[in-house]
């Protein structure tokens, strides 16, 4: 598949063009705006004021984005738009009572991870998204639930249904809770 910023003749079909240029680009822009606390929207405002009545190329927008959100935000957008980089987080509970969050794909986005232990204690950690694994050790008790991106900021995650893992007090996975999480995503319009 072609990246979002490809020439029109590089797309396989008109549908492929529409999905990538309109839907994926929108999801990428909304994701970076959520993850980087409004930096994309502020940069876009400055860009439109500075470039009105001109014919700018993509670098003009990327320069404004870098000014607003730094070089890491620019790198994320370049990878997502020009290289078609992807990201897919997955939560899993470990046998030792901890949790492991894994990431597939080339995008590097910071993400929150929320965990709950068997005593009902919760904590939220931030993973910078570098590397492919993030280990969450058990605290005072075994972890029974792990949620990647509980605020649903990363809209370009390839599979949102594997962002949640839970274990019943006896140690068995709670399939009904995982199914409910999927329905909640669907009902909220994220899927």
Brief characterization of the structure:
The chain is of the alpha+beta class and 191 residues long. It contains 5 helices and 7 strands; from the N terminus they run ααααβββββββα.
Please characterize this protein's 3D structure:
With 191 residues, this protein is of the alpha+beta class. The protein has 5 helices and 7 strands. The longest helix has 22 residues. It starts with 13 loop residues before the first helix and ends with a helix. 27% of the residues are buried. The model has no long low-confidence stretch (mean pLDDT 87).
Radius of gyration: 19 Å
**Overall geometric form:** elongated
Biggest sheet details: 4 strands, antiparallel
User: In order across it, which strands form the biggest sheet?
Assistant: 4-3-6-7
Low-confidence stretches: none
Helix count, per DSSP? 5
- State the share of residues found in helices, binned by percent: 25-40%
Mean pLDDT: 87
Tell me the fraction of residues in β-strands, as a range.
15-25%
Distance between the termini: 22 Å
Number of beta-strand segments: 7
Q: Which class do the helix and strand fractions yield?
A: alpha+beta
Write out key terms for the chains shown:
alpha+beta; 191 residues; 20% strand; 7 strands; single chain; 4-stranded antiparallel sheet
């Amino acid at each position: 598949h072609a990246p979002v910023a490809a020439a029109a003749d590089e797309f396989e079909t008109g549908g492929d063009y529409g999905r990538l240029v309109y839907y994926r680009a929108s999801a990428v822009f909304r994701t970076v705006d959520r993850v980087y606390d409004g930096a994309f929207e502020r940069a876009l405002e400055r860009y439109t004021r500075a470039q009105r009545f001109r014919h700018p190329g993509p670098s003009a927008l990327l320069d404004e984005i870098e000014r607003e959100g730094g070089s890491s935000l620019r790198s994320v957008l370049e990878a997502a738009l020009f290289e078609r980089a992807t990201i897919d987080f997955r939560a899993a509970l470990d046998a030792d009572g901890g949790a492991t969050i894994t990431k597939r794909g080339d995008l590097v986005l910071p993400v929150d991870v929320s965990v709950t232990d068997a005593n009902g204690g919760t904590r939220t950690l931030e993973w910078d998204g570098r590397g492919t694994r993030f280990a969450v050790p058990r605290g005072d008790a075994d972890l029974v639930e792990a949620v990647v991106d509980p605020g649903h900021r990363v809209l370009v995650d390839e599979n949102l249904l594997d962002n949640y893992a839970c274990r019943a007090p006896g140690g068995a996975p709670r399939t009904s809770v995982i199914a409910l999480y999927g329905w909640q995503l669907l009902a909220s319009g994220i899927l």
